[in-house]
Amino acid sequence: MVMLYTPGPNNSMLAVSGANFGLQRTIPHLLGVSLGFGFMVFLVGLGAGQIMQTSPIVQRIMRLGGILFILWFAWKIASVPANKPGEDVNISSKAEKRNKPLTFIQATLFQWINGKAWMITASMEYPHRRYNPLTGEWVLVSPHRTKRPWQGKLEKPSAEKKPEFDAGCYLCPGNLRAGGKQNPPYAGIYIFENDFAALLKDLPEEDTPRSELFNALPVKGECRVICFSPKHNLTLPLMSLSEIGGVITAWQQQTAELSSRYKYVQVFENKGEMMGCSNPHPHGQIWAGDFIPTLVAQEDKMQREYFTRHSRPLLKDYAEQESAHGIRTVAENESWLAVVPYWAVWPYELLLLPKRHVPALPSLTPVESTHLAEVLKNILTRYDNLIQLSYPYSMGWHQALSGAEAYSGLHVHFYPPLLRSAEVKKFMVGYEMLAESQRDISPETAADTLRALSSVHYTGIA
Ligand SMILES: [Zn+2]
Ligand SMILES: [Zn+2]
């Protein structure tokens, strides 16, 4: 397990120690690594990384210390006696006296001469690029820029209290919609065909231009709106676990029904005025089409290629390594893991993954669905608590295409537009629009912030 990451000194040492002395006796070593490494991250935060990078003397001392330690470590591995045939597999008591597992103090101190640990922590403070294995794109990370004062436009958040029923809302039960149709007096979840659908079921037979420079394809599809609740003033984090469970069941049913007729079903939610959502009533959308959309095709390709190389699903490997590491984890339960992904573009972006390889929403077990409701409520509550207001975002499920079930994993992306407060929005302009996505705070810092928040909603309502 400890070798899942890069084979750095800590992981190699933990693996050797675990194999030689067993897990229980390696625990002090493991704790020492955690404490030593954690303290180092703290010092780098205070500017130690800068001293390291600019002082040649410090670098030379560290290099020498590292060489000496690795030599001592090599001797320690080499001096473990080989078991003679017929001998008990346990290390003999004489040899055990010479080869003790690393103590807590030794492991803590080792972090100070472990060059790799220094490089990992220091690199978080300086501009670097991170690779997104799901899309094949890179993101520029510039954590040193967060000290920059904000001088841009302030957007006033809407903080007024909303009523449970709004006569002017086209999604509330019984109300007339903009297209002239009337909603039934629904009590739970209500799904209807979008009155202004971007995709249409029936198209006239018409030729579209097909040439290298002028290329178009006709598409067919359906767009549906799903009201999560009849109550106008609720949002997913304010709903009960069983109400969120009802939404999950509806997502599953819709996916199952529409994927029997269409190539791809996109389940998503746009929340908040900042995301261009015109109606605060809790609702999401489901678009199904007879084509594979660009981003979905790209993630499918990347996951297929990873599976060809490793015979394992990319996202299952990623979830295992993130869960073991924990540095970007925001919430976790038996079945799910929510992380600020290593390659996150949006400041407080989240990726929610099942721990088992699950291709699509209908394949979730009832227990996994229950755990999903819990983790959704948990992370969305943390989002609201971050700004003490209803947190805006665009979220959406990515599911395996037909035939891709072995390698393509179910997951959900959360892309919130906010940067440093309820009023400061991140814009994807300039360099991002023309060259490459860029972020200021590191994903690790964002995960720290979200993890430190309460999982109880600030309003005390839910
Ligand atoms: Zn409403
Ligand atoms: Zn995705």
UniProtKB/TrEMBL annotation:
UniProt keyword Methyltransferase, yes or no: no
Pfam families listed in its UniProt record: GalP_UDP_tr_C, GalP_UDP_transf, LysE
SUPFAM superfamilies tied to this protein: HIT-like
Catalytic function, reaction form: alpha-D-galactose 1-phosphate + UDP-alpha-D-glucose = alpha-D-glucose 1-phosphate + UDP-alpha-D-galactose
Source organism of the structure: Potamilus streckersoni
Ranges annotated as spanning the membrane: 27-49, 61-78
One GO term describing the cellular component: cytoplasm
Full protein name: Galactose-1-phosphate uridylyltransferase
Cofactors (names): Zn(2+)
Record keywords, A-Z: Carbohydrate metabolism, Cell membrane, Galactose metabolism, Membrane, Metal-binding, Nucleotidyltransferase, Transferase, Transmembrane, Transmembrane helix, Zinc
EC numbers for this chain: 2.7.7.12
Location of the protein in the cell: Cell membrane
Principal subcellular localisation of the protein: membrane
Functional pathway: Carbohydrate metabolism; galactose metabolism
Membrane topology: Multi-pass membrane protein
NCBIfam families registered for this protein in UniProt: galT_1 (TIGR00209), PRK11720.1 (NF008724)
UniProt superkingdom: Eukaryota
InterPro entries: GalP_UDPtransf1 (IPR001937), GalP_UDPtransf1_His-AS (IPR019779), GalP_Utransf_C (IPR005850), GalP_Utransf_N (IPR005849), HIT-like_sf (IPR036265), LeuE-type (IPR001123)
GO molecular function: UDP-glucose:hexose-1-phosphate uridylyltransferase activity; zinc ion binding
Gene Ontology BP annotations: amino acid transport; galactose catabolic process via UDP-galactose, Leloir pathway
